[in-house]
Amino acid sequence: MTVSAAFISWLTNNAEVVSIIVTILIALIPAVWTFIRYLGLKSKELQHERFRIYHGLIRELVQPDSPGQAMALDRQIAIVFELRHFPEYFELSLRLLEGVRDTWIDPRFGRLTQEINHTIGFIAARRKQRARG
Fold first, then answer.
1. What are the angstrom distances between the C-alpha of 124 and each of 90, 93, 96, 105?
2. Predicted model pTM
3. 38, 104, 43, 45: which is closest to 77 by C-alpha?
4. Whose CA is closest to 119, among 100, 87, 94, 86?
5. Contact (CB, 8 A) for 76 and 84
6. Whole-angstrom Cα distance, residue 113 to residue 104?
7. CA 106, CA 98: separation in Å to the nearest integer?
8. How high is the pLDDT of residue 11?
9. Cβ–Cβ under 8 Å, residues 93 and 123
10. Which residues of the chain have pLDDT under 70?
């Protein structure tokens, strides 16, 4: 008996089991497809939410709550720290922080400058780490 004949014989002898398995697989295809689409949509939603949060942080870092009002230094320090949690924006964050640090040269911003330097170091180390592997 050849392999194909043996396979046909096995299918014939196990037709009931095979039909149950095929039915289950056919029933699962729409569920699996729906789940995959759900994961894709959820991923896009999370990406959009992270985009919104990141840009909100940047706005709060450089723009006072209302015109003429002083910036809250401690809040700016916290925002600079939080930028570490957005690796997808590291390239932009690095350029932005270097620009802000160079622009805000004032002894009153010493703690902010220190935090900016810490975050720049953190981002640079992470980028170097990713480049290695």
1. 9, 11, 13, 22
2. 0.73
3. 104
4. 94
5. no
6. 8
7. 15
8. 82
9. yes
10. 1
Q: How high is the pLDDT of residue 1?
A: 63
Return the structure tokens found at 69: 């009002």
- Number of alpha carbons in the 13 Å side-chain half-sphere of residue 44: 5
Q: DSSP of 51-117, one letter per residue? A: HHHHHHHHHHHHS-SSTTPPP-HHHHHHHHHHGGG-GGGHHHHHHHHHHHHHH---GGGHHHHHHHH
Evaluate whether 11 touches 18 at the Cβ level (below 8 Å).
yes
The token pair that represents 39 in the structure block:
């994961």
Among 87, 73, 86, 85, which Cα is nearest to 115's? 73
Q: How many independent structural domains does the chain possess?
A: 1
Structural domain of residue 41, as residue ranges? 3-132
